Amino acid sequence: MTTDTGLGEPERARGSRVLLGLTNALCDLGCMEDAQGRLHFAVVLGDLLGGQVDLRGVKLREDVVLLVRAALNTAGGESVLVEVVRILEGDLAGDELDRLLDGLLGRPRGPAGPDLLAGPVISREDELGARAVLSRGELPATRLRDALVEELNGRDLPTGLTADQLFSHVLGWTAQLDGLPPAVLLVDHAARLAANPAHHDALSGWADDWARRAGLTAQLEGRRQAAPTAPGDPDIPCCLVIAVEPARDGTRDIVVRPWLNTVPGHWNPQPGEPAYTTLDDLGTAVERALRQGTRLWTAPREPETGGRRPPPPYIEFLLPYDLLNHDVAGLTHRVGDGQPLPLSLKYGVHLRSLERMYSDDTVIRDQWRQRWRTLGEQGVTVHDWREPDGRRPGAWQAGLAGESRHTAVVLDAPSGTGALAALKAAIAEGIGLAIWDRRGVFVEERREVVTALFAAAQTPARIPTAVHLLRRNAESDGQGPGELLGRHIGFFWDDPTRPIDFQPTDPGGLAGEEAPA
């Protein structure tokens, strides 16, 4: 079932009745009682729907409505919803929800059919044939793993496996909604990566033969037609995105939501398990998410065909206005029995705007994309903010709004009223690049370091690497202005081409709030 704004009144009423009935039924399930249970349900549902279902984890009914709508907005999704209930609550609960759906949808009851998600079986003979063709030549195992992750909508796969081991790992997995098992998709992707034409033909021939016998030739061809033909973007890294927002439960707790992008060159971040913690314990939550990321990033990678190495992994913090000056780059992580070290020593650490990512204001988003395009095409043009500008904030913003070639701001720490108001204005006007001295006033000597940093970066895309090197060098014994700034630099790098898919919030949610200036 899918929703359609063009439906007539009776059909819309029926859709509302289905939404209400399923919402009431799911609210009564034990797995929905607490936020962690609902978030786990969302992960399983999103995995089986082939997409992402993002919840706030604050209000029971709000979360359940988002779960039900995600299922109903996908063809066949109501059956997947029943399947997830069976997985997490048992067959009795699943059967009860299925009977409820029969009544809501007016479906006739009949004998139980085959499992929706089981798909055609790969026989032992098929398995041996697949292993034989996989072994006929060299295959880039890491690129094969990355391609399969993309094909399976970001589903986690281990790194460091050979093609045959990866085939064993996914062999027992249930089919996708179009009936194609991941093991068949793996063989078909291996054909595209085979260097030898004979090896390519053997692999694609196996996939064609299996699909023909399973009656899924059209589905396999559809997958091939939908496969991206353009190479990946070398500026898209492996990345851990951490969103931090208030829990809004009357406490000072925060909700930490991680996303992992594990395939360099392609942006498809997948949500991890959110955590409820305090700002003082933010580092512990980040370290926990980072462990999963490093497990997926540390595998050796084959050289890209273009010869360019991807950037080092990034850690990006989506923060509300009042936390943008928090020292997240100084959060520490420990490797083995060594000393805790700052995140910025090993990773590029960037700040992003949580409010702007939440916003559905088309003007704000259009300005954001336009400034970013100008940055890529024309480079860095700075609109400076200094303390005297705090006495005329309207004039400063007007100067930024009236000059579209400005692509960056350099300002004092956004911890005081004036600089924070300026940063909010810059974000509203579409600025995606900002730098400040976290300690307060950004003195001229250190502003000159930023000017030199911008000049040294061959392209704007290299600025994050330049900032990373500045921070890394700051941990040496040097005491020059560059080293001092490297320990305290605030680096805002908010790329609109790499969105995080938040679900819409309620009227009292974060998108409508601003931190006190």
Can you describe what's shown?
The chain has 517 residues and is of the alpha/beta class. It contains 19 helices and 12 strands. The strands form 3 sheets. Strands 1, 2, 3, 4, 5 and 8 form a 6-stranded mixed sheet that branches. Strand 6 (332-333) and strand 7 form a beta hairpin. Helix 4 packs antiparallel against helix 5, helix 6 (124-134) packs antiparallel against helix 10 (197-214) and helix 9 (182-193) packs antiparallel against helix 10 (197-214). The chain is globular and about 75 Å long. The model is unreliable at 4-9, 110-117 and 504-517 (pLDDT under 50).
List the topology elements.
Elements: H1 9-27, H2 35-49, H3 60-72, H4 77-89, H5 91-105, H6 124-134, H7 141-151, H8 163-170, H9 182-193, H10 197-214, H11 217-226, E1 239-246, E2 254-261, E3 270-271, E4 275-277, H12 282-297, E5 314-319, E6 332-333, E7 341-342, E8 348-353, H13 354-358, H14 362-378, E9 382-384, H15 393-401, E10 408-412, H16 417-428, E11 433-437, H17 444-456, H18 463-474, H19 481-488, E12 489-493
Helix pairs in contact: 1-3, 1-5, 2-3, 2-4, 3-4, 4-5, 6-10, 7-9, 8-9, 9-10, 10-11, 15-16, 18-19
